[in-house]
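User: Sequence in, structure out. Go.
Assistant: Echoing your sequence, followed by the structure tokens.
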Amino acid sequence: MDHKNKDERIAELEAEIIRLKTALKEETDRKLIDVKNRLQTVADNLPTGQLYQYMYNTRTGKMCMPYFGSNKWEDKLGISMEEAIKNIDKVLSMFHPDDLPTFLKNVEYSAKNLTMFEMEIRFGPNNVHLHLISQPRKDGECIIWDGIMTDITDKKLMEKELARSNHELQAAIESDRLKSTFLANISHEILTPLNGIVGIIQFLDVDHITPEDRREYIDVINYSSSHLIELLKDIIDTSKLEARQMNINPTAQNLNEIMYDLRDFFQTYIQTKLSDDQKKKDIALILDDSRFIDNSNSLIYIDALRLRQVLKNLIENSIKFTEKGHITFGYRLSSPNLIEFFVQDTGIGIDPQQHDKIFTSFHQVQQGNNRQYYGTGLGLNISQKLIKLMDGEMWLKSSIGEGTTFFFAIPRIPVEN
């Protein structure tokens, strides 16, 4: 009887243990469900945030996401919570390719040192910008990161818009500054020849003037008048280009003849048209025709007026900024259908930091009242825009003290027999 009571007692105890285990498991499961529900409620109500877990098994090297916040982010991220939990590789494949290596490197460092990591990534087909912050903890063979990610797409867009607005503001300020400088320069450029003309006319009215003096005075008037005409032409061309009313009118022209005519013009220009100070310069003008098209094939369709204008601007610039040495110009075929022109000088050169600005309206290498070389700052801007209208491009190669070479390339359209 005692043996039977003992067995019954053992059975009762075993049944009680099973009941307690079951009750404990049920209570644990209930609490886990309650915690999960609370966590899910928090996740669902984060306005711009998303909770997640990231797990790495140090023994197997496998990764997974045992928890991934709210399904309301599915449309935003392009993946559901269920998919993210089941397929970590798909999650990683949705990282922007430039961001994934940095993310994996941060995870590796964080796992090794158990330190929090924080970074920004671009994710999913919509290129959503996310800010991640994760804190690791060790759980047996696993390292688990509990983290929150925040959608910062709107913030990034605002930063981009702010940067764009700031850039436009700075551009507007710079434009106003350049226009003010231009007005000051143009005043000087107009008044100088006008004063010369007015002053000389007073001398012409004197009875005892000699024929030699009269000829010299007339030359000054002609030089000053030509300068004013060229200045007004630049202003008119700038206005037409800004209003997109400038037209290119290609006709059949012999390109070689244009180049030789320019050489003859500038050889005369250097001898007769320069001011007395400029005539003191020791400059050789060279036309490099070593790579010209054969004269029998040099007939092309081109706007000769605008081509001469561009080359004239570039050569006059070289004369202005070159004290001694040479100015060489010419062209070559860089391909069967592309003509590349160049104007090279041994002048003062241009700082590489100025290269991007040199074609801007009103911009000049030297600014302020103490600048040595005067001008309106319109020539290069006009030239570049004319070349663009010819479906070409213009660029330069230069550094301070080593001279400057301007290049421009335009399509070659041969005239068929």
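User: And one key feature?
Assistant: The first strand starts at residue 49 and ends at 57.
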